[in-house]
Specification:
heterotrimer, A alpha/beta (572), B mainly alpha (293), C mainly alpha (346), A: 572 residues, alpha/beta, Rossmann fold, six-stranded mixed beta sheet, 20 helices, C: 346 residues, mainly alpha, 0% strand, flat
Chain lengths: 572, 293, 346
């Protein structure tokens, strides 16, 4: 039974010279599942690529972008069925290939780079061996020749002291170096096509920049590049052509410049507008949502003094090897009522520990924290317990912060205090909270596992609001969400702040998010505060070299001009 | 924006239709079999006479060492006694020994595991060292030691098996308690201002004790296996009690001529243990319904 | 056999992420590294000594719990009669075994003796326990070690070939492991004996100490252990198969079997390696049963008669021996760790 080919929007104005094409994909369909009970995940996708060009496939989770790319290396998984009118690499069809044929193509004609080298390289082996393996599998040469080539490759990707580094394992290298090693292992056999699947996700911004640099260098060397990402901004520099995917189809397929300047599809436009950045400050990232009016939730009382302040915080930890490390070193900040203080830094900067100190889940080794003007840190837990209602928290992974046995109702009831006497009153209040964050009464009896990522985060926000706090500590609350959901959650947080006057201590590694949502910003590096000030001051006119480096590595995207014609929508 | 925000609801927790005995029809055949066997043996414990007409003590010297047949499903032993009847009548004592040993083992395991998991580093250190020492004593050698000191009896069996199997379970419990103690929801509860006692009661205990059902059923099966092993060596309950282990011991000298004397009781023990484990795992899965983490 | 001792995976990551501690940097002194290494080795040895000491203490105090008078027991044993003796008659026996001294003194003598390798004197045979044991222990050790090696080979083969393959194969492999792990030695041994030795006559019924006589007993010990090790490793193995670095290896052109052998296996065997330390001690204890079933020479028979005859020193001697083997095996396991997973060397 053949699936009728779904017409995707014609590749208008994409310069396309069939003679030069290295890769041609027409009407690609991928289905998963047992024969007879298959679910189609990719519904007729087409694209092509010539050497020296870069195609970016962009979409959110579940869009089918990763699966589509994996058909090119035959790694879609055990129970998958790949069909296409045409799936050709360098004139050779990739359909119905035997395992042995695939093994000769993988690594040799197509290089595949995954994300985060920490998990994409074998932790137990030196990186040199991983690179060497790529050569060995294709019988490239004898051992001494391979050893030389490994060092050459490491130099090519910019790893200093390659002889030393080749013998080290991924966890012994810094983030940037191990990403380069990963790239080296993928391009070892000098493949003509390089596919990078989410090459920058979960990486620090400075490391992201290094990765993109390396990919650009490969492109300059004449390789064809496919970038898969959910981050439009990241691909904007490198991509010549962009394909926007959703629900297994390509919604828009256009040259990069045109797509970013004048997107034709509503989805693409919404995706671009959902990206938080300096330009998006003060405006909504997503279409307005149906939410309950304030109702019985009270606005926080106005206060002049800071609602949360920290002075000269110090925290040391003893590592597994017995060496003491100062994770937070002389950190001070103050958070006023109704404002958002963003703390930005890369991994290891101490921002998470600072958050835990602010929540008094940890006691500092030096310095102190005050909540609403009164002492907060260093008190015995008994005296703090009552006041914990003033400050709450939302996490990056809300699922792990919910008791696995509880339903949404139980989670919310647990967070409501004793002010509400009687089960009925409490329940009514729980419903109010749900509606405040854009959910409905019927969500009460659901379990968190049955909710989507965005819905779970909303429940977490509802729970955080239940005790009517002054401050909410947000620890990377949107980092694990798709761009469109992230936009909704950021908008929700902004709305709540406007309506309730609650303050946020917002922690993130994503400069764009921080710039969008913060009034003031704190930049942390290695436990120290390197720069502090208003968001514009710090992020537009950074003074400290580290901040400057951080800002420079942020890929920026220009907002597109308003549409002149009605936009195409997704068929309902 | 396309509505990619909320994926369709994953299969809702089965809203049980109000059809009686539907659950029986839905059982996988393996689980149903296991349940049947366990029920059968429980019946044997309570009313053995219901399951066999023969007398386990009836000596019949004309029918010694007969292979399994229609008349004697499991054959006869060296005194002509029907083996099947002896197995049925022996179920009670064997099960009691198994239950007793498991109860002792679980009690020790929970006490030690929780102490180690909840206590500070000192307490954990001491208990963990203690568990390490206990690991150095395999069940059988412990049994031999106790028999040498106290003499063979059911109590010795229970003591040896209970203490010998405890450290394995204790470590499991400790692991569970630690995992829950370090989890995100316990920290969230702290941040909400709940007192420690309430957190232990409402979060740590219920979540850490979740695998208890599986542990217990596994434990009973294992205990019976161990206890019968001890008795097999002649260190268990003295004859002529038809306890399973004693049956195994009695059959030893005849193994080359009458294999059924060893294999049949052993088969019952193995099947019983397997059935208990299968049942336990099934019950655990049902209890966990919407949790699955 | 005591069941799974592995810690289950954490139920959820900590809410506020633990930030990774910044790497120590290449500035870590080589000397500081060596010093830390020495401390760790020292710590392990101390831990091992503690276990031995605690085991000895436990064993000693269990001995003192012997109901009735020990000297009386010994005399009754000798004469195979049950009678009570006067204090004067008991005195020389008590003096010989040291029962007339205060408990603490006996305890210290016991410990002192252990350090010198004196495990006491058998009540039955009136010979030093150490001598008795060393005469008989050879075949048992051979059997145990062979069984461990066999168990590992079977477990690894099953995992490599049946993990995550077609549904039927995978569940068969997993099902077999669960089934075999719970098999009692006496039952499996008898079945193997009856099938292969008596009916098919491939192996001798009484094998003695030769290689041929080793096969069935070793298999009996190995099969349940293989099931157990396999279960533990399979869980890890299947988890690791999904990790990104495995995909990277495949994307380089590596075939499936090679990926399993060269990459996944090393990551998955650690829990099973941990268990092997304990397994050796448990195997010796299982050997007691297996030797009985196959009438094989070794300490099995000896220790059973000793227990029935209430010969406490002999039984305690074997218990201490097993504790010693357990401790040594665990130290070896620790060393093996550092070789398998270099991250643990830190």
């Amino acid at each position: 039974m053949t699936t009728p080919s779904v017409t995707q929007p014609a590749a208008v104005a994409v310069p396309h010279d069939p003679e030069r094409d290295l890769l041609r994909v027409e009407n690609l369909r991928v289905a998963f599942g047992e024969p007879g009970a298959e679910q189609e995940v990719v519904h007729g996708v087409s694209f092509s690529l010539a050497p020296g060009e870069c195609l970016a496939i962009v979409g959110e989770s579940g869009s089918g972008k990763s699966v589509s790319a994996r058909t090119l290396v035959g790694l879609t998984g055990g129970r998958s069925r790949v069909q296409a009118d045409r799936l050709e690499l360098d004139g050779e069809s990739l359909l119905e290939m035997s395992d042995r044929r695939w093994r000769s193509i993988r690594g040799r004609k197509v290089g595949f780079i995954l994300q985060d080298a920490l998990v994409s390289l074998d932790q137990l082996r030196p990186v040199g061996k991983e690179i060497d393996e790529a050569l060995r599998l294709h019988d490239w040469g004898g051992r001494p020749a391979r050893r030389r080539r490994v060092l050459e490759l490491l130099e090519l990707v910019g790893v200093p002291e390659p002889e030393v580094r080749a013998k080290q394992r991924p966890y012994e290298l810094s983030g940037g170096l191990r990403q380069r090693a990963l790239i080296a292992s993928a391009i070892a056999m000098d493949p003509q096509l390089i596919i990078a699947d989410e090459p920058t996700t979960a990486l620090d911004m400075t490391v992201q920049a290094q990765v993109l640099e390396q990919l650009e260098a490969a492109k300059r060397r004449g390789k064809a590049l496919i970038l898969i990402s959910h981050d439009l901004a990241v691909v904007s520099k490198l991509a010549d052509t962009v394909a926007v995917m959703a629900g297994g189809q390509i919604l828009e397929y256009a040259p990069a410049e045109r797509l970013f300047a004048r997107p034709e599809h509503a989805y693409t436009r919404a995706l671009i507008e959902a990206i938080p950045s300096a330009d998006s400050r003060g405006r909504r990232l997503s279409p307005a949502q149906r939410r309950a009016p304030l109702g019985a939730v009270e606005r926080r009382p106005e206060s002049d003094g800071p609602v949360l302040s920290a002075s000269e915080l110090v925290k040391r930890f003893r590592g597994p090897d017995g060496v003491d490390r100062t994770v937070v070193d002389d950190v001070s900040f103050s958070l006023g009522q109704g404002e958002t203080l963003g703390i930005v830094g890369e991994s290891g900067s101490g921002k998470t520990t600072t958050a835990r100190l602010a929540l008094a889940l940890l006691d500092p080794d030096g310095g102190e924290v005050s909540l609403a003007g009164e002492a907060w840190s260093g008190l015995p837990e008994r005296s703090r317990r009552q006041r914990r209602r003033e400050i709450s928290v939302i996490y990056q992974d809300p699922l792990s912060s919910f008791d696995p046995r509880w339903s949404v109702e139980q989670i919310l009831l647990d967070a409501l205090g004793e002010e509400y006497a009687g089960a009925a009153a409490k329940r009514a209040r729980a419903v109010e909270l749900l509606e405040l964050v854009g959910l409905e009464q019927e969500h009460l009896k659901r379990r968190p596992l049955q909710l989507s990522g965005g819905q779970r985060q909303r429940v977490a926000i509802a729970r955080a609001l239940a005790p009517q706090p002054q401050v909410i500590v947000c620890d990377e609350p949107v980092s694990a969400l798709d761009v469109s959901i992230q936009a909704q959650v950021l908008d929700l947080l902004a709305d709540l702040q406007k309506e309730l006057g609650v303050s946020y201590l917002f922690i993130s590694h994503d400069l764009g998010v921080i710039h969008h949502i913060s009034d003031r910003v704190l930049v942390m590096c290695d436990g120290k505060v390197v720069e502090q000030g208003s968001a514009d001051d710090v992020l537009v006119r950074p003074r400290h070299p580290y901040t400057q480096k951080l800002v420079a590595s942020l890929p920026a995207l220009e907002r597109p001009a308003p549409p002149t014609e009605p936009l195409r929508e997704v068929a309902a | 924006m396309s509505s990619l925000a909320s994926p369709p609801n994953p299969t809702a927790l089965g809203r049980q239709p109000s059809q009686p005995l539907l659950w029986l029809r839905r059982l996988r055949p393996g689980v149903a079999l296991a349940g049947a066997l366990v029920a059968f043996l429980l019946l044997a414990t309570l009313v053995p006479a219901l399951l066999t007409g023969k007398d386990p003590y009836a000596v019949d010297l004309s029918a010694t060492l007969q292979a399994p047949s229609l008349e004697h499903i499991m054959g006869t032993d060296q005194s002509g006694r029907d083996l099947y009847a002896r197995v049925i009548y022996g179920a009670r004592e064997s099960l009691l020994i198994g239950l007793g040993a498991t109860a002792l083992s679980m009690a020790l395991a929970i006490a030690l595991g929780v102490a180690a998991g909840l206590g500070n580093r000192w307490v954990d250190g001491i208990v963990s060292r203690g568990l390490e020492v206990m690991f150095a004593f395999p069940v059988l050698l412990l049994a031999l030691l106790f028999v040498a000191v106290f003499g063979p009896s059911a109590a010795t069996e229970i003591l040896a098996v209970g203490i010998g199997t405890a450290p394995g379970y204790a470590r499991m419990v400790r692991g569970q308690v630690l995992a829950v103690r370090d989890s995100g929801y316990v920290e969230a509860a702290r941040a909400l201002g709940h007192p420690y006692g309430s957190i232990v009661r409402r979060h740590i205990f219920p979540n850490a004790m979740r695998p208890l059902v599986v542990m217990f059923t596994l434990g009973v099966g294992q205990s019976i296996v161990w206890a019968s092993g001890i008795a097999f060596l002649g260190l268990g309950v003295p004859p002529p009690a038809p306890e399973w282990g004693a049956l195994l011991n009695a059959g030893r000298p005849y193994v080359t001529q009458a294999w059924w004397l060893e294999v049949m009781p052993g088969l019952v023990i193995v099947l019983f243990s397997l059935s208990l484990t299968t049942l336990g795992r099934h019950i655990q899965q049902r209890l966990e319904g919407g949790i699955s983490r | 056999m005591s069941s799974v001792a592995q810690t289950p995976a954490a139920l959820g990551a900590p809410g506020l992420r633990q930030e990774p501690l910044p790497p120590a940097g290449a500035s870590a002194d080589a000397r500081a590294r060596r010093w830390r290494f020495a401390k760790r080795i020292g710590g392990r040895l101390l831990g091992a000594l503690f276990v031995l000491w605690a085991a000895a203490t436990f064993t000693f105090f269990v001995q003192t719990l012997l109901p009735g008078n020990r000297a009386q027991l010994i005399l009754n044993q000798q004469s195979s009669q049950q009678q009570t003796y006067t204090a004067a008659e008991l005195a020389p026996v008590e003096a010989k075994y040291g029962f007339d001294e205060p408990i603490m003194q006996q305890y210290l003598d016991y410990l002192g003796g252990l350090v010198h390798g004196d495990l006491g004197t058998s009540y039955q045979q009136h010979l030093p326990v150490l001598d008795i044991i060393s005469e008989q222990v050879g075949p048992t050790l051979v059997l145990t070690v062979t069984a461990l090696v066999l168990a590992w080979a079977m477990a690894l083969a099953t995992i490599l070939f049946t993990s995550r393959r077609r549904r039927l194969v995978s569940s068969a492999g997993s099902g077999w492991e669960i089934f075999s792990a719970g098999l009692p030695y006496y039952w499996l041994g008898v079945i193997l004996l009856v099938v292969f030795a008596i009916e098919l006559q491939i192996f001798p019924v009484q094998g003695g100490t030769g290689v041929v006589g080793l096969v069935l007993p070793a298999l009996t010990l190995a099969i349940p252990l293989a099931g157990f090790l396999g279960q533990v490793t399979r869980d890890e193995f299947e988890k690791v198969l999904d990790e990104p670095f495995v995909t990277s290896a495949r994307a380089r052109g590596m075939g499936d079997f090679q990926v399993r052998l060269r990459h996944v296996l090393r990551h998955a065997v650690l829990p099973a390696v941990t268990l092997s330390g304990w397994a050796l001690g448990a195997l010796i204890s299982g050997a007691v049963i297996v030797e009985t079933v196959f009438a094989r020479p070794g300490i099995g028979n000896m220790i059973v008669t000793a227990a029935t005859a209430r010969d406490v020193p002999l039984v305690s001697g074997v218990v201490m021996l097993v504790a010693f083997v357990y401790v040594v095996a665990n130290i070896l396991v620790d060393l093996a760790y550092a070789v398998i997973d270099p991250r643990l060397r830190a």
